[in-house]
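dumping this here so i dont lose it
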């Protein structure tokens, strides 16, 4: 059985100048973010989605006058199916001039080896083939060697390893614009990432959320649900909620 293609438009909006948000389309998809370099026209994409929603992303981008052919870099927050599979399809579409891929530690290692069982939860019977994708080894820039990422003159992100949801989870933080892209570490409304997948840990997740709780954040741009322009209060709520979980263990 294959998952049906979902080419419905991923709804997008400009959060701040040259930073765009595209909402997840369906189950096992994720929010995606794009930053435009006004000087070069190049686009940097944060997270790949689940592949079957890629056409929907392209439609959303077109409405905001963004051309997917200008994607030159892909930054991943972690190694899970809903954030990773779309890169394989995108690399195939842009194979004449493929974008560079960036990931942290364990995520980079998994992608370089093409370890499908560490990308998809096999306990649920999921395979890349069901998404119309073949997992192949990829060339990846390991963010362990890059503490800062300069995307444009406007956006210079710090990279912070924040495991707990997965071993390779990383947050991207832009201190001047107070933007945090945390993947599945935290969400709005006091929510936070699951810690019961392989490589997950409640105590580690608590420590990672404690770390980002000390950052100065206005724009919280997580991997699922909505986004927030009141980032610090949202992160603080998630931290308070997960500490209550930790008290039971």
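and the seq i came up w/
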């Amino acid at each position: 059985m294959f998952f049906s293609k979902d080419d419905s438009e991923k709804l997008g909006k400009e959060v701040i100048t040259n930073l765009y948000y595209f909402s997840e389309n369906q189950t096992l998809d994720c929010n995606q973010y794009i930053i435009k370099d006004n000087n070069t026209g190049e686009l940097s994409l944060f997270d790949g989605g689940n592949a079957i929603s890629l056409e929907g992303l392209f439609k959303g981008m077109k409405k905001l006058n963004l051309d997917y052919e200008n994607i030159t870099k892909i930054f991943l927050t972690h190694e899970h199916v809903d954030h990773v599979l779309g890169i394989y399809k995108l690399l195939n579409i842009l194979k004449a001039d493929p974008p560079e891929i960036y990931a942290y530690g364990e995520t980079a290692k998994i992608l370089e080896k093409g370890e499908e069982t560490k990308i998809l939860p096999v306990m649920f019977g999921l395979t890349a083939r069901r998404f119309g994708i073949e997992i192949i080894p990829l060339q990846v820039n390991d963010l362990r060697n890059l503490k800062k990422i300069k995307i444009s003159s406007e956006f210079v992100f710090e990279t912070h390893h924040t495991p707990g949801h997965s071993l390779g989870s990383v947050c991207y933080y832009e201190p001047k614009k107070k933007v945090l892209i945390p993947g599945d570490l935290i969400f709005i409304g006091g929510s936070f990432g699951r810690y019961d997948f392989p490589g997950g840990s409640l105590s580690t997740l608590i420590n990672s959320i404690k770390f980002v709780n000390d950052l100065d954040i206005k724009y919280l741009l997580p991997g699922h649900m909505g986004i927030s322009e009141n980032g610090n209060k949202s992160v603080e709520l998630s931290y308070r909620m997960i500490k209550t979980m930790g008290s039971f263990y």
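The helical segments are 54-63, 81-93, 105-113, 202-213, 231-246.
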